[in-house]
Design goal:
The chain has 252 residues and is of the alpha/beta class. The protein has a single domain (8-248), classed as Protocatechuate 4,5-dioxygenase, Chain B. The protein has seven helices and seven strands; from the N terminus they run ββαββαβαβαβααα. The protein has helices spanning 52-61, 111-123, 138-147, 166-175, 204-220, 223-231, 239-242, and strands at 8-10, 31-35, 66-76, 79-82, 128-131, 155-161, 184-190. A five-stranded mixed sheet has the order 1-2-7-3-6. A two-stranded parallel sheet has the order 4-5. The longest helix is centred in the C-terminal third of the chain and has 17 residues, at 204-220. It is globular and about 45 Å long. The chain starts with 7 loop residues before the first strand and ends in a 10-residue tail after the last helix.
Length: 252
């Protein structure tokens, strides 16, 4: 992916879940990795209208129970789950225009869904906890303001786990698969290229090399090879050029 452009991946095609259980009219929700911009662009209110095909698809699926967002902007010692019924705003950036510190995304939380997430993660053998104080960071409110500006679908976030072990994050992703049959649309919020020191034309070679590896890993590799490649992602071409820190890759 060229720097400055954004990819949408239907992760459900990469990590398919079990067949639908009949919940939500028997439909299994997709899951997506959504590359999003920073908050400054939101000054252009026109950017909040429509949102393209992705936003339209998500609006269809979002007439359900909740959005579950894995944001690259929240990490804890163990996996943590947002459990506030009315999440606050977290302006987790600096140096942006003043208006970006007044953005509001007033979606309710979903403590009931948060408890379900906690049970699934603990069932997979990972310690976790509910966080009733955590609010929406821009990894959540920036894309959702486009996808569902009415903000009337409950939203909860799941943190990354400090240390960034890819195997742990893949295991938790598998553990959360039942949510797709329970009316929850899962959105990973990150980027396939995230090197803030090397955006622009100078990043093209590294971005292209890693992007080609990622496409091959997700689209053409066998399921077993895919998992191995993702766990060993640092061996990919230009891996640490594309991701000096992997917080924006792990939501995948």
């Amino acid at each position: 992916m060229a720097p400055g452009k954004y990819r949408l991946l239907n992760v459900a095609r990469v990590f398919p879940s079990a067949p639908a259980t009949g919940v939500v009219k028997g439909k299994t929700h997709p899951s997506h990795l959504h590359g999003r911009r920073g908050p400054a662009w939101m000054k252009d209110r026109g950017g909040l209208r429509g949102g393209g095909g992705f936003a339209k698809r998500c609006r269809h699926w979002a007439r359900r129970r909740a959005f579950g967002v894995i944001s690259g902007h929240w990490e804890e010692r163990d996996f943590a789950v947002m459990a506030s019924p009315n999440p606050s705003m977290i302006y987790d950036y600096s140096g942006f225009p003043e208006h970006t510190y007044r953005i509001k995304y007033a979606a309710p939380g979903s403590p009931q869904t948060a408890e379900r997430v906690r049970v699934l993660i603990e069932g997979a053998g990972f310690p976790t906890h509910l966080d009733e104080q955590r609010g929406f960071d821009h990894g959540t409110f920036a894309p959702l303001a486009v996808i569902y500006p009415n903000a009337d679908v409950p939203v909860l976030q799941l943190s990354l786990k400090r240390g960034y072990d890819p195997g742990d994050h893949i295991a938790v992703g598998r553990a959360l698969a039942p949510l797709r049959d329970e009316g929850v649309l899962i959105v990973g919020s990150g980027l396939s290229y995230h090197n803030l020191r090397e955006f622009g034309p100078g990043a093209k070679a590294a971005s292209t090399a890693f992007d080609q590896w990622l496409q091959a890993t997700l689209v053409t590799a066998s399921p077993a090879d895919r998992i191995t490649r993702l766990i060993e992602w640092e061996a990919a071409p230009a891996a640490r050029k594309a991701h000096p820190q992997e917080d924006h890759l792990l939501p995948l």
